[in-house]
Each structure stands twice: as C-alpha cells, then as structure tokens.
Amino acid sequence: MGLFILRRFGVMILTALCLTFVVFFLTNLYPNLEKLAKTQGNARMTDAEVASWLDRNGYGGPLIVRYGEWLGVVPGWTREGADGEVTGRCIDAATPAEEAPTFCGLLQGDLGYSTVSDDEVSNIIGGRLALTGVLMFWAFAVMVPAALIIGVLAGMKEGSRLDRSLSTVSIASTATPEYVSGVIFIVLLASSTAGISPWLSEMGWIEGRTLFLGSARSAMDDVTFWNFTLPVMTIALYGMGYIARMTRASMAEVMTAQYIRTARLKGVSFRNIVLKHALRNALIAPFTVIMLQFPWLLTGVVIVETLFNYNGFGWTLVQAASNNDIELLLACSIVAVFVVLVTQLISDIGYVFLNPRIRIS
C-alpha cells in the first residue's frame, strides 16, 4: 500500500509540473504581457517602451527561467536602475535588497503580488477559498445524501415505476446547467414581481417581499438559510443527478448478483439484503464519482458565485482573467490543479480500501 501511494505521489508531482507549466505558458503569452505593460504603464506605449517595461519588471527573460523563478527553484531576478536603486522579485518595500532572500516562489510560499489590488496573492486566495469552502461544504451536505438516496431507491427495483420516476428527475437535473437552474430559482423564489413570492406575501405567509434572497453577498459575512439556499440548491441540483444515476446503475447491477439471489433464497429480509449486502458493494463506483465532484464544484462555483454575487474563489478567478492579473490567475490555477490531484489520490486510495479484489491483487 505504501508503494502504491508513493507511486501516486510521483505521478502527482509530474502532472502538477506539466499542468502548471502549460498554465504559466498561456498566461505569459506576449499579448497578455503587452496588455499588462500598457495597463500598468501607459496605453500609448511604443513597442520599445513595452519591451523595456517588461525587462525592468522581470517579464523579459526566457520562459523556462521565469517559470523556475515562479516555482522558487531559480534565484529571483534583480534589476539596478540608473539611480542605483535595486529592484527584484524577492525585493519589496519591507525587505531591502541586502536582506532579500535568493529564492522566492511557490515552494517558498510566495505567490507574488496582484497587479490590480497591490495585495499579496496569498492573502487574496486564502480569504476567497474560505468563502468557497463554506459554499462547497453545504452543497456537498445536500447533494451527496440526496443523490445516494435517490440512486439506491431507484436501483433497488430496476424497471419499476419508482425507478422510472427517479431516473427522470436525475436526468432532468443533470441536463440543466447551473446558469439555467440559478436563473429559474431566482425568478421563482427570489423575485418580488414574479414567481411564488408575491403570492406568498399577499397570503401573509412570509414577512418580506421574497421567499429567499437572490443575492448571496450578505452570506460573505453571515450565512443564513435565506441568503444561502439558492446558490447551494443551484450547485447541488446539477451534481446530484449524475451521482444518482451512477448509484442507480451500480445498485441495479449488484441486486442481480449471485450472492444477492442466494441471500433471498435463504430467507434474508429485503431490508437486510439492501443494507448489509448490496449497499457497500454498490457504493464502490459512486465513491469515485463523488470524489470527482470536488474539481467540478471548483469550476461550477465560477458560474454560481458570479450569478449570485458571492465573492469566493470562482468570482476571483473571473476577475483575475478579466483584469489580466497574471499572478492571481496563476495562483487560482495552482489551487485548481492541487484540488484535482488530491481528490484523485483520495479516490484511488479509497477505491482500494472499498474493493477487496484490488487489495488482494
């Protein structure tokens, strides 16, 4: 088992290096760097002035060298101006040139500064990830139990009316993207002029003008049932159908296995057959799917957080791309790569523990 995990770690490191280099290459294409120089300097800068600005700010060297500086395995760049002032990647106002470290990159925990807010990227990412973590936690708390219940109930009696009804609901939820379901929820539940909110208000069943809040901005300070329900429902609805369909297929396959038939012939109750024999084996495949929902949620929140004005990781990623904030965009990419690789590792290890045939081999 230890050798298995060690091999997976080696594959993770190689994959992370490849993915981060691709992202670094794409974000550091010359049109992006030219746009950055003109944004930070002057929109009417000539090509020579752009090249000079890029060289002074560490963007003019070879790509592989700048990638090494960003990783922290190559010494950070330094430049000495005409007035004798020394600037560099590892030098800032709080760290004089003579006290600056030689290496300052990802491995040293230094992600650079945002070119838009002039704040440390690590400070921005940390706060935004905390907000997104809360949203993802509640989405998972709703999505996974509901999906497993629907999938198990549908797979217990394949082909029944209950199976067809629940399968239709699962397919419909998976076929509805977040930007569609989110708008529908806002119109139906958070509009003072449409949906059911005006009717409930006239009947005196709700105190305010809407049943739920259409914006989750207040949830950044205080999460409540009223301001957080719609974004959680929007995220959970889409992923729930996919997990439910996988659980249903796995459960239906297990229920036709020979050991299940033997248990029935021995007179074991249907409830015990499902809970003690079928359920654990049926959850092996859905477990992998559930773990793969973490990377999907990280990209899915981009739409949901923008739609509901919730300034988390997804909203930050959109803003970084829109403002050509290269350092912040690279940091967001690192987080996404890390989440994907870690969830894959957990999925592989969990699959080994759940499936005894893999352990034996």
- Give the N-terminus to C-terminus distance in angstroms: 11 Å
- The overall strand count is 2
Give the low-pLDDT segments: none
Radius of gyration, in Å, reads 26 Å
* DSSP summary: helix tally: 16
Biggest sheet strand order reads: 1-2
Look at the structure and give the mean pLDDT. Answer: 85
| Number of separate domains | 2
Shape: flat
Describe, in plain words, how this protein is organized in 3D.
The protein is mostly helical and 361 residues long. It has helices at residues 2-27, 30-40, 47-56, 63-71, 121-156, 161-174, 178-189, 197-203, 225-255, 258-265, 270-282, 284-291, 293-307, 313-322, 326-354, 356-360, and strands at residues 78-80, 86-88. The protein folds into two domains: 2-108, no CATH class; 130-257 and 284-311, no CATH class. Helices cover 68% and strands 2% of the residues. α13 packs across α15 (326-354).
Question: Briefly, what is this?
Answer:
The chain is mainly α. It contains 16 helices and 2 strands. It has a two-stranded antiparallel ribbon with strand order 1-2.
